[in-house]
Each structure stands twice: as structure tokens, then as C-alpha cells.
Amino acid sequence: MSSNLTSKSRAEILRLVEWYLSDENLKRDSFFNHLISFAEDGFIPCEIILQCPKMKKLRVTQELLIEVVGVSEKLELRKRADTNELRRKHALCSREASALENLEPTLEELPLQLLRNGVQWEA
Predict the structure, then answer these.
(1) Mind listing the pLDDT tens digit for each residue in 73-89?
(2) Cα separation of 52 and 97, whole Å?
(3) How far apart are CA 34 and CA 103, in angstroms?
């Protein structure tokens, strides 16, 4: 699939992934903010990015995600035996990071946070 994508499509995917982890988005996105805050060295599993609705809509595979992140100037990739992870190359400044710690999840983000914490519920 990845060989059939245009460079425009690849650029759109990269722009989207970089947006998820950008300063601007993290100021309001408590889900990604908390993931990054609690992740080892700021790395989050690629599987989490792939579960985002826009990534699903674009039918992004892990192989394609690794490929596009590989050319990013803002993100870096870490390959492990059991998973692939990515993070920002540059950390938030301490002032921004401390402001983000107080973010509470929105109603829309709460199910994702509960899943991350291992809480199960019935719909």
C-alpha cells in the first residue's frame, strides 16, 4: 500500500502525526499530553497513533507510519522487538510542560484514558 501513495498523501500523514505531538495541540489535548508525560523518555507506541480516527480514515499502516516518521525533522522513531514507538525530538519547555500537567481529559478523551489505565466498562 505504501508504494501506491503519492508524496502529497505521505506529507499529509506526516503533518497529521506531527500535529498530534505539537506544542499547539498538546496545550489542549490532555490525552496525548498524559501519554507523553507518563511514557518512558516520552516515547509512545505507534499503535496509539494508528488508533486516531483520522489515521484510520487514511488507512495508515504501521509500516507506512514508520516510513513517514523516518523523514520527520520533528519526530524520532525507536524500534523495539515488541513495538515501535515515536516521540518529539524537542521536549516542551518547563513552563509549557507544567501548564499541561493540570489539563483534565475531556468527555471525548475519557474513554481512551480509562482504557490506558486498564479500566473496563460496558457501552
Answers:
(1) 999 999 988 999 999 99
(2) 23
(3) 9
